[in-house]
Design a protein that fits this description.
Chain A is an alpha/beta fold. Chain A is 33% helix and 22% strand. The C terminus of chain A is likely disordered. Chain B has one domain. Chain B is built from 13 helices and one strand; from the N terminus they run E-H-H-H-H-H-H-H-H-H-H-H-H-H. In chain B, helix 2 packs across helix 7 and helix 8 runs antiparallel to helix 9. Chain B is globular, with a radius of gyration of 21 Å. In chain B, 39% of the residues are buried. The model of chain B has no long low-confidence stretch (mean pLDDT 86). Classes of the chains: A alpha/beta, B mainly alpha. Chains A and B meet through strand 1, helix 1, helix 3, strand 4 and helix 4 of A and strand 1, helix 2, helix 6 and helix 13 of B. Strand 4 of chain A pairs antiparallel with strand 1 of chain B, so a sheet runs across the interface.
Chain lengths: 224, 287
Amino acid sequence: MATVIKVENLSKAYQLGEIGTGTLSRDLERYWARVRGKEDPFLKIGEINDRAKKGESDVVWSLKDINFDIEHGDAVGIIGRNGAGKSTLLKILSRVTAPTTGSVKLKGRIASLLEVGTGFHPELSGRENIFLNGAILGMRKAEIKRKFDEIVDFSGVERYVDTPVKRYSSGMYVRLAFAVAAHLESEILIVDEVLAVGDAEFQKKCLGKMEPGFSSLLPYRGNT
Amino acid sequence: MSTPTNEQWDIELTPHSSLLDLKLNDVWHYRDLLILLVRRDFVSFYKQTILGPLWFFIQPVFTTIIYTFVFGNLANISADNLDKPLFYMAGITAWNYFADCLTKTSTVFVANAGLFGKVYFPRLIIPLSIVVSNLIRFAVQMVLFLLTMIFYSIHGSNVHPNIYLLLFPFLLVLMAMLGLALGMIISALTTKYRDLSFLITFGIQLMMYGTTVIYPLSAVKAKYPKYAWLVEYNPMTPIIEAFRYGFLGKGTFTMLSLGITTLITVGILLAGIIIFNRVERTFIDTV
């Protein structure tokens, strides 16, 4: 099997506390350090991430030197305590934010579902939102058109497809949103606790949809 | 699926990207999203309003009336021997497009943080969709301006549309690029320093007075020959002057001044895209 995700020495630092006062002087200091070819002065003092203890510095490493490979066809779950960095890792993999150091190499198209219904506009109908959301996830219009019936069928909200989504129940909303994402032709699927919503029948349907051909990353939190 | 060798990676995520990677290919791939976003803006604009698209008309009409009264009659500022309402409306129509593009793109990161924090797509799509959405509003205001022009020329006004009208599409692109570029720079900086969002609201007002919206360049040149360059080198000035010249037959611009404006605009736009793309990578951590 081929490796489709390769993570090498991946680290991500976050700044604690308020960002605002002193940022300009801090930025200038960092810039100056970079010009002289030195290490970033604010990253040096970062320490291990333990949310329960009060630390010395205000920089924290959410992820520190992570290495792993994921093969094609693997389904991987990420487990950890609150604040362990699960979502941070997924955010980096789905390109929402860049790593502080290290690199990630990916093969194939990525579909990431950090939240269902991202970009849904409450005033627009289900139909319009399928197109909008599909496009946000990276589908071409023709592709969405081709799969439209399939998406509506999967979501099981056909009756409401021309109603603005602000009138939907939260379950219907999630059904529609997930249906769009599930029909994205991708080799890698990244999911962050989005299946917690939706009834048992729908959850089963979604998990069934994920199985063939996907490499998926699922952090589990609480009971799904 | 075939077995790719280890060198063939589709995407590599690293802490820093190359400065000159403008990611325009990526933008092109998402062009359907751009169209859908424009549609969304347009459709949601109408929702829950009574007057709907009429709002596009009301603002320029009232602004023109007030300007004619205050600047034209009360303060007696020259209007290049044109009919005052026409003179102001030309300036307002063009300026509004630029100002709208600028103010709306300047909040892109802060306003869309929720969306940007959850899904990846080329962020440039959003400012681009704003520029295109504003075109609809601009088109409506242009129609109003043309109607006013026809009305005045029937009533024997000295309106002389000429060959420079052909510059119009070019001027429009320049305005869009300039508004987009400045907006993107400000939006990138506001992710960290919110101060700029305060600056923009009155800054755009002040900038209007530094542009030839309510007075012609010829008046500045006559009255303050020493300081006229301040207004002249404002990249918006040649655009508006050329716009007026093409449609109404009065305005002070040269091909050289328009050329300089173009150079400045392209320069700012490149800088804008580079800054925008840099900030885009990690802004979600600071916004």
